[in-house]
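1st attempt posting a full record on here, be nice pls
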Amino acid sequence: MRVFTLKKPPTEYSSNVYYILGDWNTIPDKNTLIDVGPNDYILPELATFNSGVGKKKLENIVLTHEHFDHAAGLKYLIPLYNPKVYGFSHSLMNVEPFVDNMKVQIGDRSATLIHTPGHSNDSIGIYVEEEGVLFSGDTLLSINTYGDTYTLDFLHTIQKIFDLDLKIIYPGHGDPIINNIKEMLTTTLKIVSDSKIIS
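the predicted structure (as tokens):
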């Protein structure tokens, strides 16, 4: 599995957009975008990739949630590539029905889509167990101060992510997290658990 972070538009707020290819661009691979950004800015760069002879440039899209900076560019990709779209919201174009812990192929790997409410009710994470990789969207994973209030859903989300065997986290914004992941999640889980929790 190869992960490429596409360029962001210079004048509009955007999430990270990840393009996932298999290691060898074989026919069974599923060329996949995780999030798509707010507009059509990624299209020229996407077109430059060698994504496999005889293969569609884009077969799957996984949206971590429906906020505009992650999902608004979908309307430009559907007419060009007609990909399958995976996300929590049933209002999305071409979306496949979501079930927690469903399996989806990204590149040459099997990924598990995990419902991770907290940042938004429709948030999902994409976990690639074989690689120890999580695409976390905007789920807040590094909390270092006490005094805030959290939802019970968010506490369950942090517990769920804590239980994964992670080597790298690709967040919705910012750089990949590769160091001290377990320590970070241990601190976050303790702070959230010790905080005021609301339903």
